[in-house]
Amino acid sequence: MNSMATRLLDVRKEVITLLQDLIRIDTTNPPGNEAEAAKYLAGILEREGFDCMVLESAPGRGNLITRLKGSGGGPSLLLLSHLDVVAANPEEWSVDPFSGVVREGYVWGRGALDMKSMVAQEVMVMRLLKRGGLRLKGDVILAATADEEMGGGAGVRWLLEKHPDSIKADYVINEGGGYSIPIRGRHIFTVQVAEKGVNWIRIRAGGRPGHGSVPGAADNAVLRMAEAINRIGGHRSRIKATPTVRRFINEVASKGGLHQRILTGLLFNPVLADHILDLMKRRDPGIAEGLRAMLRTTIAPTIIRGGVKENIIPSECEAILDCRTIPGQSSEDLIREIKGILGDIDKLEIEPIQLDEPSESPIDTPLFNKIEETLKELVPNSSVVPFMSTGGTDSRHLRRRGSICYGFHPLKADMPLEKIQRMAHGVDERISIENLVFGTEALYRLVVAFTGE
Ligand SMILES: [Zn+2]
Prior knowledge:
Elements: H1 3-24, H2 34-47, E1 52-58, E2 61-68, E3 77-82, E4 102-103, E5 106-108, H3 116-132, E6 140-145, H4 156-162, H5 164-167, E7 171-174, E8 180-183, E9 186-195, E10 197-206, E11 210-211, H6 221-234, H7 243-254, H8 258-265, H9 273-283, H10 285-294, E12 298-306, E13 312-313, E14 316-325, H11 331-342, E15 348-356, E16 359-360, H12 366-378, E17 382-389, H13 395-400, E18 404-407, H14 417-424, E19 430-432, H15 433-451
Parallel strand pairs: 3-6, 3-7, 7-18, 9-17
Antiparallel strand pairs: 1-2, 2-6, 4-5, 5-19, 8-9, 9-16, 10-14, 10-15, 11-13, 12-14
Helix pairs in contact: 1-3, 1-15, 3-15, 7-8, 9-10, 12-15
């Protein structure tokens, strides 16, 4: 047994315990309560000689940061994660979602995938670097932050505003990619290099109130909104494959059969794409709709409010649109598009609530190459493909400040990707111990290869 294998036996125990302990600290956001988890990690790291900061953006909203100094001869690397999780309804789960129980080779609980497992892995990487006394070219920074699930206002966004130097780094490893797609005995690992913009837009419909018994005498704002929502529902933005998405689709297809290659080629054709996706949907609804969302900007009504009383015709109605823009499309372009759909409806206002532009990092970097090399060492027959996620992560805030960010939470496909994605904010979230250890080893090897002297 080589030394790495021996060490992995201990690592296995330690990383399982870390994850279990983190799951048992309930950091459901809101309210978050990440400070307890941040202090727990600080305690562990300080025992091994790390200097830790727990920065609180508000009472209970803790962000943990620590760093290993490098010689300055290379770029700095931030290992980023978030400590908060989304709510879990225990009645729907087969186990207590905050138990961190080990069963059937898995660690179960809210955050097991998104993303306390990666918190545990990154903490483990820091400990191993320190224990090994490895000399580093650049600083390696660990930040386990608050509030990602609610937009990062009490976490990364706040840190960038109040303590920018604490997490500033040339490169960032975060969640958002790293899952492998098994195709014909090969493993294609995704690396998230881009994410769509997150734009929340309020539309308000006006009208004239009246009695519900004489509707014709009033002007019903709910009916006006119904027209607006109907149009949004029937609208599809133009198909546009960004270079990253094009490369992703081509590389995944190139490992498949001829049939698959021909079909996917047609996805870049704006006229045919939706027909092809409809065909794909019969077999693989999750993949087809995932691709559809990668190929265009989407506009989804998510909230509608109108009316106050059973017998009053409402004079106001509002709706919220969750709009995800593809790289290359600005929030301004989006608002213009929405005005184009709704512009001729009278008494309708369109007002942005939050506009977050899409973000993208370059691929031709030493870190991207090291990710590919590391995986090839660990998983024979593997390759790496850049990937754009349709959802947002904290990487977008850091990309805006000039960091090169990759979503890379290494996971071998021991469950169908769709199932993993459903569990992440769903029921019976869990990670296999094998994957927990694999991810730790992959991240450790990557950091050593990238920044070890
Ligand atoms: Zn997450």
